[in-house]
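yo

u said u wanted the structure for the complex thing, so here. seqs first:
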Amino acid sequence: MDYSIGEFSEVTGLGIHTLRYYEHESLITPVRNSSNRRRYSEKDITWIAFIKRLKATGMPVKEIKRYAVLRAKGDSTLTERMEMLIQHRQSLKDQIKQLQEHEAKLEEKIAFYQQEIEHHCSDTP
Amino acid sequence: MDYSIGEFSEVTGLGIHTLRYYEHESLITPVRNSSNRRRYSEKDITWIAFIKRLKATGMPVKEIKRYAVLRAKGDSTLTERMEMLIQHRQSLKDQIKQLQEHEAKLEEKIAFYQQEIEHHCSDTP
DNA sequence: ATACAATGTAGAGTAAACTCTACGTCAAGA
DNA sequence: TCTTGACGTAGAGTTTACTCTACATTGTAT
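structre next:
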């Protein structure tokens, strides 16, 4: 019902070194067995999935750490965590809007290039 | 009709050090005056704006350099450059789609948090 | 003529997020 | 028992994209 670091690396797609690094940064804190080996749970899988989402949306490790530390403190930090998520949702919305603008401009540029290239080759009858 | 590096830094919002770094990486190649000082043109302003757009959409400096080098070779590289832009447009579209998915999931999570918090505080009558 | 601010080059330093190395420990199979 | 492979820690190394330092020149205002 739990995973060694090697197994967990497999299921999450994160390297063993990365998992240890994340632990060092307090993003995740697996329990240890009697011989000091890390044991990751099922819940850790969904937690890593969420960490990946935060990363993919541009949240720096330091801030994910802040969230992780709150999470580790339990239910008393629910509101604070939600505030973080609401902030992040806004930044995500902004990011998307920015990228859409960039896409529109790139579209224009490509159309312009298409014109240029046509004109350029128009001397072949 | 042209700019010193200090002036150009002002109008583009890029630091002087960054401009020199970009030149070192062949992203931009301003002409030099008789005393070896860089002189940036009006065209360089739009070019930097485009570089910024590529950066903002996740293109690494190395690839921007590839584009810049092609651009410096002139019209014979138009097609190749357009191919790059078309590729990049696709990656941009993918990025946007990804972010939108992440936004939807984050929305779900926030809604869930809201529930949690309500339940949590429901013991105050 | 002289001070001083802007510019030049070369190279070192920084920050983030890994990624790898060296070396020691431990459990299990041949 | 011996060996192998996964795991442990501490710390060094890597990559990207700047950012800064040191020191030499040059243009301009007094």
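The CA atoms of residues 69 and 104 of chain B lie 40 Å apart. The mean pLDDT of chain B is 95.
cya
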